[in-house]
Amino acid sequence: MRIRSGVSGFDDLIGGGFIPERLYVLSGPPGSGKTTFTAQFMAEGLRNGEKCMYITMHETEEELTSDMSSFDFGFERLAASDHFRFINLVSPRGKHALNKFANSSNSGVQSLTDKIVAFVNSRSVDRLVIDSTMLLRLFFANGNEEMTRFLTALKQGEATTLLISEMTDPSSYSDEHYLAHGVVFFHNYLEATGMTRGIQVIKMRGTNIDCDIRSVEFTSSGLVVDPSARVEV
User: Fold this and answer.
1) What number is the average pLDDT over the span 153-182?
2) CA 160, CA 25: separation in Å to the nearest integer?
3) Fewest CB atoms within 10 A around its CB: which of 70, 74, 181, 190?
4) Where are the beta strands (DSSP E) in the chain?
5) Cα separation of 55 and 195, whole Å?
6) Using one digit for the tens of pLDDT, what is the confidence trace for 6-47?
7) 178 alpha-carbon distance from chain centroid
8) Secondary structure class of 139 (helix, strand, coil)
9) Residue 48 carries which DSSP code?
10) Fold of 10-210
11) Strands 23-27 and 160-165
12) Cα dist. 106→96, 143, 148, 206, 209 in Å?
């Protein structure tokens, strides 16, 4: 069984879709399409009646919905479903929701990890998006060790999880890339003729993959990957 991404052309690069209940990292520079990809991933799940959750630390649900409303894959309508839950970890509402699911005597990453994982499991979430690793590290005093614990707990959950990472150098790996089941990298190349965008599957355990950089474009339908168009760098 595979989980379709909702991004036209992308699943051709990974054997038909994501293997479910695994952790995948989306890395790349700002404006390369990571958030749009995750919104399409959420929309695909909601169309299929799956339970979806979006966890962030830097925007409101209204901002995300407004940004995605310029595309016609219907995110704003689908996000109104009872199957969709949006959590901002730094908002009073988000803190209140998580506080119900962990021992408040815990501190730091143990508390945050336990709360998020318990909350996700309590909702029987099928698709989970976490945005992003840079902001998560603001919660963790002992960065690498605590991030490792958090990612390990996510991998043990039952949701198919996309984790956004702001890393901009595909040759410089961090903890999340080693621990994740799959890594997808977004590329932006500014040339004389304009911006060329690419997407590359760096790693995907359990499936044959196309590791070449393939063309990806923003369209009215969201991101569209051309699996036959190789981006030359």
Assistant:
1) 80
2) 11
3) 190
4) 23-27, 52-56, 84-88, 127-131, 160-165, 182-191, 194-204, 214-219, 222-230
5) 30
6) 999 999 999 999 999 999 999 998 889 999 999 999 999 999
7) 16
8) helix
9) T
10) Rossmann fold (3.40.50)
11) parallel
12) 16, 17, 18, 36, 41
